[in-house]
Specification:
amino-acid biosynthesis; EC 1.1.1.95; alpha/beta; 12 strands; binds D-malate; binds nicotinamide-adenine-dinucleotide; single chain; 7-stranded parallel beta sheet
Length: 311
């Protein structure tokens, strides 16, 4: 009897592949290439993706045998969960696999924006020894506003407490007592915007959060604010941020995610006071190994008809 087929549409760790290889036929495709993806899903039982593959109704229409779609990471915004459910396809992810890695990347961006690390590095590589131009700011005693006090937001808050920062957060779904336990004060969005010296975004991308930090919000912030977004592109409106940077209403920004990806050209990239990375938030060996093995195990359970616990 032939083995069930697992289609791997984006890079998956060797440890994850090893979990699958004994029991399944493992095939590969470039999930960002729709012309290749759509025929490739026709006769597979499971599909494994990361951010670049849009798993939507069109995919499920082509995938007559598909039983499970697995996202080797946290966010499910590139999976149409409703369409999957309609098509009888189970959706699984690896919700804790990369949270430490993502939190550490947000902090790396925050420190890089505070201290102009990439700018100084780039100038020195060009043979320019520019010290006063890249004078930065300290974190100690400053207020950081955490947008979204979920898994990653909490890890970021705990780590920034070690820098002696005041931490406020906006998250209407979290109890004030839980926040207080973490040493975090829950505030309204407007309070956060007016108080913060740094803002770090850890929200899911939903109808409510898309554009949550837009022109109105960026007119409320302190001019010395530095904004980090290592959550999802578009939560901080890119045109509004571009304008705020141009008009000097924001001192800097650290961005790992963009409204459309890959993003290699953007009006934002002209600003000297931004630090950008190409969606590297989950990109450590440790996180990729965890994400790969977690989703591979979930796929194995799902294809054996067993209960798939939250990872
Ligand atoms: P999570 O679900 O644990 O936390 C999200 C928090 O946001 C929750 O506490 C929730 O109550 C809050 N929230 C939801 N809607 C809100 C709203 N409208 N207003 C205010 N608060 C709201 O998610 P997480 O695991 O912490 O992930 C956070 C984000 O980071 C997600 O967008 C995820 O996709 C992204 N992420 C990015 C990378 C990367 O590579 N850059 C890696 C991992 C995760
Ligand atoms: C995630 O949601 O897990 C991250 O954005 C990482 C990724 O997409 O690979």
């Amino acid at each position: 009897m032939s083995k069930p087929v697992v289609l791997v549409a984006e890079e998956l760790s060797p440890a994850g592949i090893a979990v699958l290889e004994n029991d399944f036929e493992v095939r590969y495709v470039d999930g960002a290439d729709r012309a290749a993806l759509l025929p490739a899903v026709a006769d597979v039982d499971a599909l494994i993706i990361r951010s670049a593959t849009k798993a939507n109704a069109e995919v499920f229409d082509h995938a007559k045998r598909l039983r499970v779609v697995a996202r080797a990471g946290v966010g499910l915004d590139n999976v149409d969960v409703e369409a999957a459910t309609k098509a009888g396809v189970m959706v699984v992810n690896a919700p804790t696999s990369n949270i430490v890695t993502a939190a550490e990347h947000a902090i790396a961006l925050l420190l890089a924006t505070a201290r102009n690390v990439p700018q100084g590095h780039a100038a020195l590589k060009q043979g320019e020894w520019k010290r006063s131009k890249y004078t930065g700011v300290e974190l100690q005693g400053k207020t950081v506003g955490v947008l979204g006090l979920g898994r990653i937001g909490v890890l970021v808050a705990q780590r920034l407490a070690g820098f002696d920062m005041e931490i406020v957060a906006y998250d209407p779904y979290i109890q004030a007592a839980r926040a207080a336990q973490l040493g975090v004060k829950l505030v309204s969005l407007d309070e956060l915007l007016t108080q913060a010296d740094f803002i770090t975004v850890h929200l899911p991308k939903t109808k409510e959060t898309l554009g949550l930090i837009g022109d109105r919000e960026l007119r409320m912030v302190k001019p010395e604010v530095r904004i980090v977004n290592a959550a999802r592109g578009g939560i901080v409106d890119e045109a509004a941020l571009d304008l705020a940077l141009t008009e000097g209403r924001v001192a800097g920004a650290g961005l790992d995610v963009f409204s459309s990806e890959p993003m290699t050209e953007s009006p934002l990239f002209k600003h000297d006071n931004i630090v950008i990375t190409p969606h590297l938030g989950a990109s450590t060996h440790e996180a990729q190994e965890k994400a790969g093995t977690q989703v591979a195990k979930s796929v194995k359970l799902a294809l054996s008809g067993e209960f798939v616990p939250d990872a």
